[in-house]
Amino acid sequence: MGGVFLPSIDGIKQQTFSMDFILPRVERFLSEELPRIVSASEVPWHYNHRCKTCKFVEDCRKDAKGTIAMIPYLSVDDASDLKQAVPKEGEVDIEDLVNYVNNIQIDSNVSNVKKVKQIIRYNEDRKQSPYLESKTENAQYIGIPTATFPQETDHNLIIAMFLDPFVSRPFGWAICLYTNDGKIMKEFQHADSNLKSEKNETLSSFISLMNSFVTHLEEAFKYLCQEGSRACIFVYEEKEKTLIQDSLLELITLDPDKISKDIQPIQHKAMQCFLNLFDDCSLLLAIKNDDNENSEIPDGLREFPRLIVLEHSLSENIAINVPGFYQITDVWEQMVKPTLKNDQELNSLDPSNIDLESIYATWDSMNKERINKNLLFRTEFVNVAIQAYYSLLKKFTDNIASILIFSPQKFKFSEVQKFNHHYLGKLYFFTQFEAVTSSSQKRADRLKDFVQGEAICGILLEFDEFVEENHNETIAQFIVCDETSHKLETNNFTNFILTEDSAEGTREAICFSDMKYKKKFSGCPLPVLALIKVVDNSESIAIHLKGEFQKKRSKLQKNAKFRLYKRYLDFNTDKILGMLINIDKQKNSLSLEILKDPNAWSTSLPEKLPEKLKTIALNKCDSFTPSQKKISEALLEKRLQIIWGPPGSGKTHFLALFVTWYLTEVIPLLREKKANTIIGITANTNTTIDNLLERISVVQKRMNKTDDFLLVRMTTRSTRPSNSNDITYCTPQELNFKDAYKHTVVGGTIWDWHKIYDKQKIDIMIIDEGSQLLVANACVALECLNQTHGKLIIAGDHMQLGPIIQNTSHPAFSDDHPLIFGSTQQCLMRKVGDPSFNEDDFFLKKGQNHDYGPCTLQLKENWRMNCELNSFFQEIYGDDYISKNRNLEWDFKDDDLSHRKSCYQADIVSWKSNDFSKVK
């Protein structure tokens, strides 16, 4: 075992981990890599922005001159690629790179040449790289198209904040509002600070400083909102953004009961500022972990960032002849000073007055007026740097829109949705953020093609002909020009947008708002199309696209080139958001009760099956294995049962056995029960639902119980197959559980159940593959249960692949916080007393028995594997996970396995001698 101490919300926490998987790497490092490093004549090193905080940064900066670190912000991977591309023994310097670029055929499409051109920002039109030109003392604009810097603004709000590293809190801040031409608005110029001698570390000084900050920031926001200004907010460095974020979060999450109720108005202002500055996962930390007060969640997230880190924009599009990264003095000397016309600004904006480290170093010797003045100098520096950025851009091109793609929307305060229950508020934000992240990924592909100047992520097409035309929709045939690079899957969903194969066409695709049109089939600024057919000829591949082509009709000429991009299509996010709001409004929400304390809810049956009847029922499941029988017994006594089914344990078969046994053997014992029992089935995929229904049908026939209960599958009218003798197909609206003439098992997706969750209630809901279903989606299934006696069964394996999550950067909560952003199964697995499991608890330590709380039981029989294969899974699932087919053998008639026969037979001999160490 290994261990490390890590900071957490509750202080320093020890994290342990198994060394088994890392030991080979440690051994290789000690035996191979370390001797190679020690014996090397030269030590490889690379100077870039990671070196910023090192105390030797200035010494290394001198040594880095002339190396490939003269390409600022060059990553280690890109540096390695450049060294491999340039044919030279020993270290490659910047002169070697210049010679390489001058001597190669720069129009070549060889992969390593293309890679070099990307790294050095080679401009195809100008046939040069801004990093490799003859040395110049002035900055140059690179010209990389970007979606993170505004094309034009009405106002720029600039914030500066200074950190006291000893207490991890600010000691000063400045806010200043400028017009888009750089003129200062004096009524919105403010600064405040604490003296070092005033005990900056006290909580009261922090609250006082942040009170003045949020008060003036809110005033600026109100002005921008009243003016309808297309404004952006700027900070210079990433660490300033982080400091503002952390400081607001600390203020918001203070407990008024422990400090003073007077802090609540300040906290409200801080929350408003936080919501209008940030739109990332940090918002989850601003939601308190109790239901004593409302949680405010942004209702809709911005597609264009409101807060911009200027240093990121400079590193992306400004070339300055210095190694590693840009210091403030570099930006001042080579970018800002050449563009300044004002002598007063030239004299006042000395780098020593605006650099964070320099100001902190002289903090103790300055009075408050001097500190505030330097803070305001920093906002002035950011303002002139922004003006210099636009000045260099205008020299580079007259077509600014070809580089800066977006303009900010008119400023307005973020709309919020208030939640009484913080779990629901967090799920609301999580669901929104997943959608925005998915949408952003689609846009990132288009932006990548725009930067590269070719269709890499999009599909390059050539228009051929119209195949079919009618009033509503048209089918057109296109020839695929790069058929080897994309997987073409057909369906009737309008998953694609079509645009011309040009820079302007790609820009239109980038500006296409996926979130705004995520449910639209028509009325979009670009054609939204479905790929309905692939025609694979001997010479080429053609595809049929169906949809409305009016927007590009005049461009659809024979052999005209187009690009096809995937778009974000989403009919379900709004359903989940609306349902979460409805749940929050309920006085007694079943799903919220289950989320809060599943163990307590599990024991809340109004009446239990008498022991005598339970014994009779259990005597009729003799064909069950011991673990299956144990789980069945638990299901008679509880409302919640999580069935943990490792690979090969027969989860689906057991669920089919249980459903048949419960409806035909248990329910008849309950003579007072007059209404028919309804069991619901859902899962993350249609395939899983269909498999379970088919398995129930097989068991039902085998046990001669086909007349005892119905099997129903919810579907749509357009996709409904003809009814079979086994399963009835119908739409959700056609169901009426009250009039059911016999017990019924109903299968449907979460979205099928969403159509009836507020109208129809069921007795048991089975969630198959619950380890793959998100908690927010599962709330639909929970709301379908009968409030007084409904039961929930979740089957799955939390040790296998979980649900697909688009954004994995969610903040860490305290250890007792449920895993609500993961799978339903993990979320509802709680310890006795209801403490939540964290992800580390799911890994079995050596000699430890699995115990995942009173509501979780494991299927302990492996039906698919012999003892040899099962021995591996016992390492994960425990020694009591036994093979039921001990003598299963591989089918060596398969040519792909024949070469393994001798090895396998040797392993059999080793296993039979009980010497497992010999098994390879």
From TrEMBL:
Q: Which domain of life is it from?
A: Eukaryota
In what residue span(s) does the Helicase ATP-binding domain sit? Answer: 620-820
**What name appears for this protein in its UniProt entry?**
Helicase ATP-binding domain-containing protein
Reaction catalyzed: ATP + H2O = ADP + phosphate + H(+)
What species was this sequence derived from?
Answer: Gigaspora rosea
InterPro entries from the xrefs? DNA2/NAM7-like, DNA2/NAM7_AAA_11, Helicase_ATP-bd, P-loop_NTPase
Q: Which Pfam families match?
A: AAA_11
Q: Name one GO molecular function term.
A: DNA helicase activity
